[in-house]
Input
Amino acid sequence: MHAGTVAASLTLRCGRSCRPGVPFRNRDTKLRHAMYDFLTTLVTPLPLLIGLGLVCALCSTRPTLQPFRFWRRGLMLATFGLWLYSFPPLAYVTAGTLEWIYPPIHEVPADCQAIVVLGGGVVPPDELQPRTELTTVSLRRCLKAADLFATKPDVLIFVAGGKRRPEWPGETEAQAMKRMLVRLGVPAEQIVEENRSRSTYENARNLYGPLKSRQIERVVLVTSGTHLLRGTWSLQKYVTHIVPAGCDYRTAGFLWTADKLLPSADAMRTNQQVVHEWLGVLWYWWNNRF
Output
């Protein structure tokens, strides 16, 4: 039987293409992304401390278990941990471990050929908003890129980011960022989209082809201050020279006032982001992605 007939017959029987490994590779990629998201959230201090507090609170009501004093100490430890995790001076220092490595820049160096902007998330369209919207993180990265572009308007801007979940409707991160950059005055013909990546590693890997085809070896990398380390180390595997250009620095403008001794939701969010980034750095290093 002809090979094409055999393939068509197998496709009809299976209800899908039977090319070796393709469905399984896609399924494996989705599983890795899901496991990465789950584990990097689970092992951060916030869910662990809340879980410890709940366990101790429940067990302290069971007389058949350990003495109440033991569970009370555990509950006090969880409460102290949550207070420390939301302590603004601690958030300032932990964010500094990432942000102080690369100080901000305000213009594109003369020898750089392009600006690379990494996506920071989008909100897909729904019944309340008719089109894809950038998250605050992505918007700030676009604003930074537009400011840098104004200092050297002959460079190209590469925007990188697909859909975090393939089933989401609307635009990719790159498409939404391009639309915003055009509104900010960047000519559309000077913006190159990379629409397939779903992680920082994939951003860097998928940009290699478009950059190489244009013989671009020196770029300015725009991303959040806490994300610069992982973004720079990922991209340096594919680009000769990188100038990190951070935005949204969480340590900027910090004032040592009395209210900074009180718990803060912003400090907790900062610490959560810092832990996520350091776990990402370790994960990428372990998987040889740098």
Summary: The first strand starts at residue 114 and ends at 118. Residues 115 and 157 are 5 Å apart (CA to CA). Confidence is low (pLDDT under 50) at residues 1-26.
